[in-house]
């Protein structure tokens, strides 16, 4: 990969970063500009690839990060954080220089001893050339410090800490990337520019984040959020599930995608928009709530629904929660003004025999009879072929999950 190196260097020296201009009537991206790192000139692509000194295969998580960097989901980042920026984000939750909020560090990891600072690395994924990375920094991270600051714990009982300790490589690499291609996925992930183009202008856009199939209670949450006190009339909701890696026991992304697609057709509500996010969950609680808000701001959202114990996780041994029930909500509300967004705390809705879905406070005040179905019991009923009550889950969603369960058992 040594030919055309001089040509690639001259391109890199003269080319300015390309940005997607702000859409009229939409919220400005984080930092003011929507980053677009995709290289579109064929000769430039070839020169970049030929100038690479090394090749590295991305993990599923790496590929999500590369995609979000390339399309501007992580705006204003133009590459993986260098050592200085990484340490600043870990300690202060802010980017150095601009002082902009950044919930979690975005880094590329490697076990390669051969990669050196100043070199270029071709990032590949399942047979695709995704990007070329200019290595500005290579360092041995203090992972204990990182996990303590970002996840609040160094315990391997936390899934995020376990991921950092066991999945990520020995070294971190930081530096600018040049996008060559987006991962070929079995489900489409619209870019921030495309999502913004489909959103109405001068309208509140309320983002709903989830990593599980949408059930009736979720539907109640995001439809009621459109009428929250801090949401203007005529708002739309963007249901924007993460379809990248999550916890080991979560439902696979492709299955979740199919549940969303059938539900989108069943609901057929013009005020409910759908898009899919190639994001890798960290289960980092409060700090991940900030990361989600930044990403959704880049996708054009003005409001963000913050669930109770959002992005929370439990100890793999004791089952105890790592974060308080309202820690993420309070953290999001605190930082929302600086982001130019508004947090919408999710309502605690319950199903009652007498009045259907109401808030828990209303059910208590009126003495209504609340019906409950745990996730564990729901999965048992799915596997056993039992009828799932329609107050709990949509028939279309249940059909997809049951088909998946039967296929898995078969």
TrEMBL record:
InterPro entries: ATP-Sase_PUA-like_dom (IPR025980), PUA-like_sf (IPR015947), Rossmann-like_a/b/a_fold (IPR014729), Sulfurylase_cat_dom (IPR024951), Sulphate_adenylyltransferase (IPR002650). It comes from Tetradesmus obliquus (Green alga). Belongs to the sulfate adenylyltransferase family. Keywords: ATP-binding, Nucleotide-binding, Nucleotidyltransferase, Transferase. Its EC number is 2.7.7.4. Gene3D superfamilies: HUPs (3.40.50.620), Sulfate adenylyltransferase (3.10.400.10). This is sulfate adenylyltransferase. Pathway: Sulfur metabolism; hydrogen sulfide biosynthesis; sulfite from sulfate: step 1/3.
């Amino acid at each position: 990969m040594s030919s055309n190196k001089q040509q690639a260097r001259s391109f890199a020296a003269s080319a300015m970063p390309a940005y997607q201009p702000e859409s009229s009537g939409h919220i400005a991206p984080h930092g003011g500009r929507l980053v677009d790192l995709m290289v579109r000139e064929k000769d430039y692509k070839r020169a970049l690839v030929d100038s690479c000194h090394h090749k590295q295969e991305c993990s599923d998580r790496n590929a999500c990060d590369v995609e979000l960097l390339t399309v501007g989901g992580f705006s204003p980042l133009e590459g993986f954080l260098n050592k200085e920026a990484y340490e600043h984000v870990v300690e202060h939750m802010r980017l150095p220089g601009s002082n902009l909020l950044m919930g979690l560090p975005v880094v590329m990891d490697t076990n390669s001893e051969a990669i050196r600072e100043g070199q270029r690395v071709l990032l590949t994924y399942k047979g695709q050339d995704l990007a070329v990375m200019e290595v500005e920094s290579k360092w041995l991270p203090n992972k204990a410090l990182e996990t303590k600051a970002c996840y609040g714990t160094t315990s391997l009982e936390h899934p995020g800490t376990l991921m950092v300790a066991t999945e990520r490589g020995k070294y971190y690499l930081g530096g600018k990337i040049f996008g060559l291609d987006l991962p070929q996925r079995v489900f489409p992930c619209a870019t921030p520019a495309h999502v913004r183009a489909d959103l109405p202008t001068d309208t509140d856009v309320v983002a709903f984040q989830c990593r599980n199939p949408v059930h009736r209670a979720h539907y109640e949450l995001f439809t009621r959020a459109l009428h929250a006190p801090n949401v203007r009339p005529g708002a739309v909701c963007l249901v924007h599930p993460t379809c990248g890696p999550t916890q080991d026991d979560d439902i696979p992304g492709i299955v979740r995608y199919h549940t969303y697609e059938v539900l989108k057709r069943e609901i057929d509500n013009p005020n409910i928009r759908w898009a899919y996010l190639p994001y890798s969950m960290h289960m980092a609680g409060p700090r991940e709530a900030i990361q989600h808000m930044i990403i959704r701001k880049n996708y054009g959202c003005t409001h963000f629904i913050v669930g109770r114990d959002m992005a929370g996780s439990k100890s793999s041994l004791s089952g105890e929660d790592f974060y308080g029930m309202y820690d993420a909500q309070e953290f999001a509300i605190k930082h929302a003004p600086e982001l130019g967004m508004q947090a919408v705390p999710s309502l605690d809705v319950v199903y009652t025999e007498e009045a259907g879905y109401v808030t828990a406070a209303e059910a208590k005040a009126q003495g209504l009879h609340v019906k409950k179905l745990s996730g564990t019991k729901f999965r048992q009923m799915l596997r056993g072929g039992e009828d799932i009550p329609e107050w709990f889950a949509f028939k279309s969603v249940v059909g997809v999950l049951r088909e998946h369960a039967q296929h898995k058992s078969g």
